[in-house]
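Model: Ready when you are.
Researcher: Fold this.
Model:
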Amino acid sequence: MPSSQQSAARQPADAIPPTAAIAPHDAAAAPGGLIAANGLHVRPVAGMVYMLLMVSLLSVNDAAAKWLTAAYPVVMIMFARSAFGVLPALWLARRDGGLATLRTDRPFAHLLRSALMLAAWACFILAIARLSLTQAFTIGYAAPLIMTALSGPMLGEKVGAWRWGAVIVGFLGVVVAVQPGRDGINDGALYGIAAAFLYALAMNLSRRMSATERSSTIFFYYTLTGLVVTAAILPFVWVPLDAADLWLFGVVAVFGSAAHYFMAQAFRFGEVSLLAPLEYTGLVWAALLGWIVWRDVPDTATLAGAAIIIATGLVIVLREARLRRRAAPSLQALPCPWFQYHARAPARPRTVAA
């Protein structure tokens, strides 16, 4: 990013899974931000540690959300995250140049992006309520493929044969993971696909906005919109809280916000091509948490689909990083499903096809 201050944000979350997979892990977490190359290799190990911490926190966050869906409506879970997230968003804005940076000439773009992100987040929570974490994360990893497919009409980018090939093969991996039967695709998978698609739309819109908007500004308006919308709906869906579940709501609120901080730190110290593959460690967390809490064991089709999607996602990430270095050595972009913070930077060149 242009400076250490401007590197202090990116939001997967809600994720996303993320997550990976998003999990669109908001991850809270989570697509295509521009990052200045100056100084990124100073502390690569620190960047990797922060990245691994971010993925682990978002994975636990998603597991807590999945558990809560058995007794509480989606809006209550989203409200807990949004209410707690406003303070970190204000802190990031202050760190990124002061609260004056929250002034914007693009309120409707912020509103549209926030609406897409909230819809993606809601769909992802509905997906993890119906699927195992491993299945939901795997489908969520399709978001970068969708981002690439939409980058032409939305961003005017030229997508070459390598990336189109990766997109097509990656979508075949989604089909393998989803396992459509005679009755079609189950509800959970449909919610997961919808979450990935909505997340991809939001992230490509973020890439357009990043030419004029700071990452902290984008994150703040998303968090504020989430708080206002969920607070307005909350009285109509409220369910009395069980005291035994309060700590799980705390996990959703605190872990999601902490993950955003670790994400920002990771990209202060590490290069995109170094950090991107680490996001897929979320699948390990999903499998581990799914087995510990629900005794879920990933089936062969899910693992095969995940392998295809991850491989094609890495092809896209590494190919784009290579082309960014060739077209503009000071900038790199990461089409990652759970990354949701973006640097303020000039529009990227559109002349190189991959």
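Researcher: Now this one.
Model:
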Amino acid sequence: MMRTKIIMAVAFACVLVHMAWGQQDSFWNVESRLIINGETREELIRWTEQIGGYAVLDSRNAVELRIPVEQLEELPSALEAYSNRVLSYDLFSREIGAEIRQARAAIASREETLARNLEFLDDADVTGTLALEREIASLISEIEGYKGRLRVLENQRRFASLSLLLTAPAPRAPGSGESSFPWLERIDFYRFMGGNQRSSRGFSMELPEGFAAPGGIFTPWEAVSPEGFRARIYREQNEPRQDLEFWVAAYSHHMDQSGYLSYDEAQFIEAEGGRAYVAEWLVPYAGESYLYAHVIMVRGRNIAVVELAGPEALYRNYRDALIEAVATLR
């Protein structure tokens, strides 16, 4: 926490020095990651609007805002006031003065050429008129394009971009909830992290990009990233014999009752072996928020369960690769 505050203070000292030198033709971008409370999103958007800014994106896990550059100095206080904790903070700037001057010069030169062509238009013959009209249309199109680009640059000069990744606080440690179905009772994050293995015979999938298989050909399917993010497949009996929708409802109820906190909206996907269900949860572990996810697929007498776990911050890097690999479950 102290390190984050120091980084924020140094970053804004650089902003103030930069502006004091009169080099204000810059586009400022702030990227920050926050642990949020229930009102963080609404309060940050309200604060942004109160200081003359606006929201560009408002979703469950991310908020993108535009705030007046002169309000950048107030940003650290706002982030700390409206969140539980500032996890990371990065500030960047890009000099856009040359682009602004180039756009203005391009507009001026083309408007001058346009004015001359309009003067020539009345004295031109038919062939000349057609050529001038084509050139005039081209010039007008170019002028409008440069004006549009200039509006974007002027907006970037006036408003800093603020990109926030929002993380919910780690939930209470979940327990192993009771269930009428034995295989659901065996779903437990801490047991999985402890290295418990079960048979994956009959099911497999491609290794996610960036992962390796630590076991041999006769061991249950397992994949591990260099940083320790883990994925395994195991097989359960489809007893009593039910379809995927039934087991999804039972699984979701079990996870809620056990105290797991939903990370994102669950989804159905079409895997190579059939329709599958993907659900993601947050769990406190080793002082961090960990991501714990399952993929469930029913095939005849068996149920395939893919179990994944690792630090939530690391999961963002691997999520696309993991979803692509899960689509090959068969």
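Researcher: Key takeaway?
Model: The two ends are 45 Å apart (CA to CA).
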